[in-house]
Design goal:
Blueprint lengths: L23 E7 L9 H16 L2 E11 L21 H6 L3 E8 L26 E7 L10 E6 L2 E6 L20 H13 L4 E4 L7 E2 L13 E3 L8 H5 L9 E3 L6 E3 L2 E2 L3 E4 L4 H10 L6 E10 L11 E12 L3 H21 L6 E7 L10 H9 L4 E7 L9 E9 L8 E9 H9 L12 H4 L20 E8 L8 H12 L3 E11 L6 E9 L8 H19 L2 E2 L1
Parallel strand pairs: 1-2, 7-14
Antiparallel strand pairs: 2-4, 3-4, 5-6, 8-13, 9-13, 10-11, 11-12, 14-15, 15-19, 16-17, 17-18, 18-19, 20-22, 20-23, 21-22
Organism: Chaetura pelagica
Family: Belongs to the class-II aminoacyl-tRNA synthetase family.
GO biological process, one term: translation
Length: 563
């Protein structure tokens, strides 16, 4: 009952099927080849045209299966693995048509009834299929094109508006911790607090924590904050913003950091910043005297920080703070008891999901050199004095020797009216906890819009994450420039621009060379950027466009002279 078509051109599939027959669930191409002794370049071109053709006739959730001989694909699944330039580069070629590699299996010809491999050098001869692999591709969610977003909130009982920083447009109001969420970050928070509720009396105060913070954070570098300019009136429409306000009849323009508005050269209101920590709100509760001794108060919510691009540096993450008021002199025992219960709870969650080893240690902050601190620990140290770092490590993490700082413990007493009391405050990065417990290798995956991520975590369950985008291609670009004479180079701003123009597709920025002219004193820097997506198809052409935008933005925003 099957319909069989012969002499079908794999690069023009839609020409052979009417529109009502184009929604294929599966398309198989076993051992594609241009014929005879053609080189890798011609076969890459064949695959590229095939994938583009398949995209036109494949169902939305369909699969494309491509079987290749051992070594041809160029992925780590090939054993032995060919050098990249000598392979067919199948994941990069497929990405050009919007596909990601979701599964790889050995190709077993003996399991296919009646199958016989033939066609060696366009002849009726068999070829070796030992070690051959079947690559299964699925559609990727398209690369986002974020439009400017104007956010409405309440400040001092007044409705105000602000433009969301471009790098946070897809992260500002995701509701991961809301009651109807099945996101693993919320599940980790709920299970952790439920475990601690067995040892402490818990009180949640998550509601009504302001998104914006005003006031000076002593010791915190402003380059790490997302500054916001508020307006008491609704700001220009997003259409006007998207048009880059090119019309001379509209007297609005963007602030230098792209996060606020000025009108006629004057700021519309005071400057605030997106909350970088929940600590100021915990301190405010302490000052109001609403902490009840013996009760563990819980605050949680997203916080926002500009930071460099490193594997575990997040411009936004969900923080949870546990605060407990105790009698002075008993704070050390309270810290030990609280951390012990947190360690027990986290170990219990991890063991229910994974067989890998998770180590958690409480380390004195004074034992760390500044260079040993990750961005999370360094920022927490700027906020206020830290007594201990909570460090974690797993078999597969590959972090530094002392583990990855995922939390801090500090004490506070200056805000209390009674000199006999001390508040113990423990802060944890919930996003990092979810990654460690569920084996999520990339923090960006927590923010993906691909529904295949949340489908792996039914409501209230934590499971070991299985990636749906295997061996994503990476692309390297260099950029070199002269620094403005006599000005300090803001490396955090440099990284933030890279995040913004690439939509978080830059995974690494490395300084590979610096040079200073003896006669003028001018300094030149050369950085290497690595682009890679964890959940979407990313093509060479798209990366080239991102790199070009990046060059323009750093020249405009940082005043550097491109080389």
């Amino acid at each position: 009952g099957a319909e069989v078509l012969f002499s079908v051109d794999c690069t023009k599939l839609k020409d052979y099927f009417p529109a009502e027959k184009r929604e294929f669930d599966s398309i198989y191409f076993n051992f594609p080849h241009c014929g005879r002794k053609s080189g890798v370049v011609k076969n890459r071109e064949l695959l590229a045209r095939f994938f583009r053709s398949s995209a036109e006739v494949l169902a939305e959730e369909g699969e494309v299966h491509v079987a290749l001989c051992n070594g041809q694909g160029g992925t780590p699944a090939d054993q032995p693995r060919r050098e990249w330039h000598n392979s067919w580069q199948i994941v990069a070629v497929a990405a050009g048509a919007g596909f990601i590699l979701s599964e790889v299996h050995p190709f077993k010809a003996e399991t296919i009834h009646g199958y016989q491999c033939t066609g060696y050098r366009s002849q009726d001869k068999s070829f070796r299929v030992e070690g051959a692999l079947n690559h299964i591709f699925t559609r990727s969610t398209p690369l986002p094109c974020f439009k400017p977003v104007v956010y409405q909130t309440e400040v001092e009982n007044q409705t105000v508006y602000f433009q969301v920083p471009q790098v946070l447009v897809d992260k500002i109001d995701r509701g991961f911790l809301e009651l109807n969420s099945n996101h693993p970050v919320r599940t980790v928070k709920e299970k952790l607090t439920a475990e601690l509720d067995q040892a402490f009396l818990l009180q949640n105060t998550d509601c009504c924590l302001p998104l914006l913070h005003q006031g000076h954070l002593s010791g915190v570098c402003h380059s790490n904050l997302f500054l916001i300019t508020l307006s008491p009136e609704e700001t220009p429409s997003t259409e006007e913003v998207a048009n880059e306000v090119s019309s001379p009849h509209v007297d609005f323009c963007r602030d230098t950091d792209g996060s606020g508005w000025v009108q006629g050269g004057c700021h519309l209101s005071k400057q605030y910043y997106l909350r970088p920590s929940l600590l100021p709100y915990a301190q405010a509760i302490i000052q109001r005297g609403t902490f009840v001794p013996g009760i563990l108060t819980v605050l949680s919510g997203p916080v926002f920080r500009k930071c460099r691009i490193t594997p575990y540096s997040m411009p936004v993450f969900h923080e949870i703070i546990f605060a407990c008021t105790v009698n002075r002199g008993t704070e050390s025992s309270c810290i030990q008891m609280l951390v012990k219960n947190m360690k027990t709870s986290i170990h219990s969650l991890h063991q229910a999901v994974s067989s890998s080893k998770l180590s958690i240690s409480l380390q004195e902050a004074t034992s760390f050199e500044t260079t040993e601190l990750n961005d999370f620990a360094a920022f927490e140290s700027q906020l206020s004095q830290v007594q201990y770092f909570i460090c974690m490590d797993t078999d597969t993490l590959g972090s530094c020797e002392r583990g990855l700082c995922a939390g801090v413990v500090r004490t506070a007493h200056d805000e209390l009216t009674s000199s006999d009391l001390v508040v113990v405050l423990a802060s944890l990065n919930l996003d990092l906890l979810a990654m460690l417990i569920c084996g999520i290798p990339d923090w960006r995956m927590l923010w993906t819009s691909d529904k295949r991520f949340l489908q792996q975590f039914p409501r209230g369950e934590l499971r070991l994450f299985k990636s749906f985008s295997l061996y994503p291609p990476s692309y390297v670009h260099d950029v070199s420039f002269w620094l403005p004479d006599g000005e300090r180079f803001d490396e955090v701003a440099f990284h933030t621009i890279a995040r913004q123009v690439s939509g978080e597709m830059v995974v690494s920025i490395q300084l590979i060379d610096s040079f200073q002219r003896a006669e003028t004193g001018l300094k030149s820097l050369c950085y290497r950027l690595t682009f890679q997506s964890c959940d979407r198809a990313l093509s060479r052409q798209e990366v080239a466009q991102m790199q070009e935008r990046f060059r323009k933005e750093i020249a405009q925003c940082l005043g550097v002279t491109l080389r």
